Amino acid sequence: MSVHEKFNSVRQDLSSSIIGQAALVDRLLIALLADGHLLVEGAPGLAKTRAIKELASVVDAAFKRIQFTPDLLPADITGTEIYLPTTGEFKFQPGPLFNQIILADEINRAPAKVQSALLEAMAERQISIGQQTYALSELFMVMATQNPIEQEGTYSLPEAQLDRFLMHVIIDYPPAHNELEILRLVRSENSQALSSSMHNTAVLNLEDIRAARRDIDRVYLSDQVEEYLVRLVTTTREKSGPLAGHIAFGASPRGTIALDACARAHAWLNGQDYVAPADIHAVIYDVLRHRILLTYEAEAEGVTSATVIDRLLSQVAVP
Length: 319
Description:
Elements: H1 3-17, H2 22-33, E1 38-41, H3 48-58, E2 63-67, H4 74-78, E3 79-84, E4 89-94, E5 101-105, H5 112-124, E6 126-129, E7 132-135, E8 141-146, H6 159-162, E9 167-170, H7 176-192, H8 206-217, H9 223-235, E10 247-249, H10 253-269, H11 277-288, E11 293-294, H12 296-300, H13 305-315
Helix pairs in contact: 1-2, 2-3, 2-10, 8-10, 9-10, 10-11, 11-13
């Protein structure tokens, strides 16, 4: 079985277990392929936790869930040095971030120091404790979640920190017919005493992921499509034009890099060896949503990041 066939099999199995959230399944796989991190926002009960746990079950990687709370300390996630009375020495005890796939549940409930510790690990792939620096695994992926309903006792992530996430995905309630499937699936799992329907699927190992990433690097991007991609991002920074009154700060070059990586991964997942404008359109909302800072006037008018991206796509000519 080829690497692409393995990922397709995982994609199908995840979709059968995470019913009604096909976009979330694809974004998880794109983040894994593009070596990035995911911020998922949605109401409770929409299978956010289940999705990352199911992904971890088919990847040969260590998984850890961290529940973020107001009393959490940075050492609770990074680890700390413990004094050993028998030897009179300090020994480093690794925290949960030393796993490979991390669920940071309700990240906005932890104070800024804890958020910064996580975001440093995401950006630098290392953790500093005292005078020592510890490297994290080559495969290191964080899916952080936010609950948009309750904002009391939360600590909003600053825009500069949000930029560390490859994508910001917003999920909604599934359609009624999918909810019926969810109900039947849960009943079936409970009756069989199973936590998942995917125990017999092929496992992706680190070499499979490396091979897939090499394939994605070879996905063809024409000069015209490349210029179109860059133009979409740079238009968000223009001080004049149709978007100027709505955008206070546009996306940085990190947004361009993220859009390129996600579009390539999307194309590869769908069996293409080239990137089309449709692949860019498929991921641009999740890539730019958290990288565009709106003006006060735009917010007062009820304009959202999605509205601005709609206008962006209508203004920049497609090659």
